[in-house]
Amino acid sequence: MRLYPIDARKYNARSEPVPLTNEQLRHFIAAGFLPLQSSLPASYHKSIFERFDQISQSYGHFGNNLLPLVPEIAELFEDPVVKGALQTVLGKDYSMHPHRALHSNPPGSPEQGFHKDSYWGYVRRVRNHRPWWVMIMYFPQSTPVKKGPTAVMSGSQHLNQQPKDYCIPASISGKAGSLVMIHYDIWHRKMLNQTEMNRYMFKFEFSRLRNPEPVDRGEWLAPKRVVKPDLSPVWRSVWDWLVGSDSKTNDNEIPSIDDLGAPDEWQGIRAAYAWANKGESAVIPLLDALQFNPNGYNEKRRYSDNGTLWRDDVVARNAAHGLVRIGRPAVHGLLETLKRGVDRARKHAAFALGEIGDMAATTGLVGALHDKEVHVRVAAIEALGLLQPTEEGISGMLGAMKDPASEVRFDAALSLMRATTRTSTALNAKCVPALGAGLYDTNRYVSGYAAEALERIGTKSALAELLPFLRTSRWCAHTDNQRPF
Q1: pTM higher than 0.90 for the full model?
Q2: What is the pLDDT of residues 265-311, one digit of tens each?
Q3: Exposed, middle or buried by CB within 10 Å (0-12, 13-18, 19+), for 112?
Q4: Element spanning 26, H or E
Q5: Which residue(s) pair with 117 in the sheet?
Q6: What are the φ and ψ backbone dihedral angles of 416, each rounded to 5 degrees?
Q7: What is the edge-to-edge ordering of all strands in the sheet holding 33-37?
Q8: E strands, 140-187, where?
Q9: Is the CA virtual torsion 423, 419, 96, 403 positive or negative?
């Protein structure tokens, strides 16, 4: 008989989350990853490993059914170390993404090339400098380097350019129960397993639901371990955002606007933040830079990125991040660009408006949900979900749940789920019918976020939509090819 790890459950229930120290948070912000060690006993990790080793012959790819197949893994994310790390970076109210995956590395499996994860492809989303999205990678068995752990490129999370000449690879090795929390956009790969033993890694994703609340952690200081390339202006900006302060520097560096497209991408990023330090006087040059590349997009969907298209968006992307750093003085110009700019400029303007978070952008972003270009609609609906919800904004999100592009519907469901955490009972009630319909969307992630939104609303009408869906979609964790009944 298979027993649930009740001792782990009891331990988690009586343990308070352990927040990251300032030094841990600084390292995560700069390096893009942070190794952690679960506080659950070795017996817990042994049971997880043995369970997956046992069922590896009974199933094909576990896919998103990883958690219902072995629900014991849920205790890992109640571990005070893991929960405290996630709360420090994402806030106390975060969401586990419906996607999760088992990455096995059996003996003889080939080594991967470095890549970024990207479900919607290289150009459809603008990647965030701010940590709206993180991943946890968990190793239930001892994983020395020779067993083929995951490797990350330290400090590569903001680079769309292949970072091999700028960043130092770091292998995530350790004893059973080792974890690493990574910025979603870090470059990483599977290393070569040089042993005769199986290696498993479980990947889970988590997203922030709202802007950070101010917290007293002091001013930004460089981490003790040096991280290259030096993107300290970005790191300071992310720290300020997370702790709710604003410590822009009076940098004497005055780069050329052409430096936004520097051959080494990290120099272009630094140039964008140097321009942002000029404040309002930099808005017009950066808005002009959004228009740099009027060419259309390569529409091929890519599930991971190798960096070959990094230059297509580089000037507009860097300009957008600079405008985000400037903040509210850029909103009016960004709204004008959202109306009249070229495709690439409109996409990046929508992204920047969401990151700035000014409610004055609501009407413009709702209008952009009807843009002919899918990339713009993806950016606009995600941006809308980062703003304080209004009746107009909610109506726009509900309309986007019917968009023909599944990427837009995915972000509409995510934005509605974010909105349910900070809007009125009346507006939440308005969302219930569309979310109920979203449970049966052909895109699994629309369904997943619709279910979470209904759970968070929690009213009688919301549960009336949710519970029949959950009843019929329930997964039996005790059923496999050896035990079908």
Answers
A1: yes
A2: 999 999 999 999 999 999 999 999 999 988 877 666 666 677 888 89
A3: middle
A4: helix 22-31
A5: 304
A6: -65, -40
A7: 33-37, 178-183, 133-139, 200-208, 94-104
A8: 150-154, 168-171, 178-183
A9: positive
